[in-house]
Amino acid sequence: LGGFSSGLTEIIFLGETWSTPDLRLNKRIEFFEAEGFLSAADAYREYAFPSLQNRALTPIYTKLIEAGYPRGRADERARSVFAQLQVSEAMLEGDYDLISGKLFPPLLAYPRAWQAYIEHFEQEQPDPPQWFYREFLDRLGFDSLAIEGANR
Fold this sequence. Notes:
Blueprint: E1 19-20, E2 25-26, H1 27-34, H2 38-48, H3 58-66, H4 71-92, H5 106-109, H6 111-124, H7 130-137, H8 144-150
Antiparallel strand pairs: 1-2
């Protein structure tokens, strides 16, 4: 986290996020679809919500349930592990194609979509809520006086 303390680091508040795993939908996917970034939306959906029907994911999910994870949390962890497995497999296979979305997360594979998302939500709420300063920046070690001054 030392990099966040740099005076050259810009942290942008992009609003509250939401996710509905049952529908394989979240705030980013909804935005990408609405703005016509359909390939980015599809890639991000596959990255964020890989199918639990995949054979490679089943043993991971089973181990999490056996370890006592609640089903919802096990789903989330298994999806995360599977996404990381896909990245590892792509690297081992030498698939370094940015557009494939395999080696890099979709937010890096589709930079125009991500930039549009940032610009949209930065304009929608240019001033972060108070909790962002108090519960996030302050805990990262940002100077309280600088934070308060920037918030006035």
